[in-house]
Amino acid sequence: MSSPALVSGFGQYVARQASAGRLVVQPRMGFSATERMREGLLAVKRAAGSTAGTITLDSFTRIGRHASAIRHLDEELTLNGYPIVAYGPDATRAMLEGVEDVDFPIQVRHGSADPREIFAAMLASGLYASEGGPISYCLPYSRTPLAEAVPAWRESAELLAEAQAAGGPVHMETFGGCLLGQLCPPSLLVAVSLLEGVFFQTHGLTNVSLSYAQQTSPAQDREAVAALRRLADEFLPGVDWHVVIYTYMGLFPSTLEGAQALLDESVRLASESGAERLIVKTALEAFRIPTIEENVEALERSADLALQVRRMSMADGLYFDMYESDSETYAEARGLIEAVLQLDTDIDAALLKAFERGILDIPFCLHPDNRNEARSVIAPDGRLQWLDTGQMPLPQPHHAADSLTADGLLTSLNYTASRYDNALDHGQAMPALAGQGQSPTMENT
Amino acid sequence: MSDAGAGDALEPTPESRPTKPKRAVIATVPSDSHMWNMVYIELVLRENGWDVNNLGACTPAELVVETCLAERPGMLVVSSVNGHGHIGGRKLIGQIRSQSELDYLPVVIGGKLGTLGANNSVFVEPLVSAGYSAVFMEAEGLEAFARFIETPRRAELVA
């Protein structure tokens, strides 16, 4: 009857919770003062539900300006996150004393196109979980040339692989399932998330998570997560992986009720799609950065709702596996992944060539290394579709970027906020699966 | 080209003019990584007949100056929404106006330029004094900007 000793590590914890039917919920949270950071982590640890901790870094650390971070700390100015490099490992170890344990793993979130120093500081502090990727933290949020970000990320991954070889419970999450946060068709999000997973696998990491950010159509989102899971099975042999969902990353509803409904839908998405973890927002997202207490409340509510959804699903058996993994999203994503991997046997070179040739092209991304010919549009049923496929090898090329108007873009950017803010104004409910089986986009399957 | 013949002159023309009157350069301040505002402004300008060179997020000031010197566009639009636009925007206009060849250039800045909400209007006057042709605050919406781009002017000299 002896239960096996619990293995420490971020991925190991998530796997344990998943096998017990519990969704791991996690905030975005970072403070510049060590006491406050510790307080925030402890509050998340104490929260009801299966939680993981987050240390979000500040924007000076993100771009490698550690001296500026130190100067701000010396002047007792507040940074917008925890400056892990400026503090150094001793201060961080002291801050974490008694916080992280086998049932409360912590992840460092940073947004950096070159995280080498961040990972070194993190490992020296006894932290082994982080996130990002050579594409997803370069093109959307920096001007760093991709040809610099990819080798910087390779070295960063190798740092982690060394720690893993020495027995450290390393975990790495891709940010490729988010990119610019909105208006990216799910097939490209799935493809980039998976390709970053292949990048980490190639550079020696064996425990990863693949992200996917909630988009504009609940049905399409479920289809996308099913596709991501199938592709992970196919392309990441020998890797322990799980899927992490991000609550909507675009413009948030301006009513609390609308924001709460959107947040709740992300919990349903995670639960019904079999995702193991959810990065939660709060209903106040449109107004300000939430307090620790508001974060804890959102985590507890999400964990509780996840259990309710699971109970309903288990009881009536209706919702599991209803979204075919052999979908349009799957076919498109697989096509993109294969086209990229065929460019070069070296994954780093393949990723660079993919953007040079427009095999991958992030819609609306103005980074100089993105071709920026691709455009997307939200169809009447809410699904994100290609308006222009640029040079990408997709089954159904479209070339209609010119038809996009400024008003059309604004409407798209406001689509989710507006839909959730005005959800009760329609008088009658929309069919949840509008378009399933009848949508023109499904005819080719 | 309207200024044909002037291009080979050894001395700069006393009255410098754009070589591409209907071309706009879009930039932001170095600290601002937001993109959607820049994508939107590009579409607005294109719909109004402008040709656009969008320099993208976190634009280095040197790149903005070099691009304007090389292209001599009809207008420079600085769009910022991270709340630090009034700081980076002032540095940028200083670098633009220090180039005599860009003295002709209508330069506007707009968006969420400070972190004071409705009180961001306190940043308007200093930005105009620093050399902007016009400043558009978030609260004003698009109308004033749409009127400006019909006939962009270097400066409205007010007594």
Q: Which regions of chain A have little confidence, pLDDT < 50, spanning 5+ residues?
A: 432-445
First CA to last CA of chain B: what distance? 35 Å
Shape of chain B: globular
Largest sheet geometry of chain A: 8 strands, parallel
Q: Tell me the greatest interface.
A: A-B, 16 and 16 residues
Mean pLDDT of chain A: 92
User: What profile does the largest beta sheet of chain B have?
Assistant: 5 strands, parallel
Strand order of the largest sheet of chain A: 1-8-7-6-5-4-3-2
Work out the helicity level of chain A. 40-55%
Structural class of chain A: alpha/beta
Name the strands of the widest sheet of chain B in spatial order. Answer: 2-1-3-4-5
Helix-strand topology string of chain A: HEHEHHHEHEHEHEHEHEHHHEEH
Q: What is the number of helical segments of chain B per DSSP (H or I, 4+ residues)?
A: 5
Structure notes:
The complex is a heterodimer of chains A (445) and B (159). With 445 residues, chain A is an alpha/beta fold. In chain A, a hairpin with a 5-residue loop joins strand 9 (375-378) and strand 10 (384-388). Chain A has helices at residues 10-19, 34-46, 59-62, 66-74, 84-96, 116-124, 146-165, 186-202, 218-235, 256-272, 292-316, 328-341, 347-357, 406-421, and strands at residues 24-26, 53-56, 106-109, 129-132, 171-174, 207-213, 240-246, 277-279, 375-378, 384-388. In chain A, helix 8 crosses helix 12. Chain A starts with 9 loop residues before the first helix and ends in a 24-residue tail after the last helix. The longest helix of chain A has 25 residues, at 292-316. In chain B, strands 2-1-3-4-5 form a five-stranded parallel β-sheet, with helices on both faces. The longest helix of chain B has 13 residues, at 85-97. In chain B, strand 1 (20-27), helix 1 (36-47) and strand 2 (51-54) form a beta-alpha-beta unit. Chain B has five helices and five strands. In chain B, helix 2 (61-71) packs across helix 3. Chain B starts with 19 loop residues before the first strand and ends in an 11-residue tail after the last helix. The radius of gyration of chain B is 15 Å and the shape is globular.
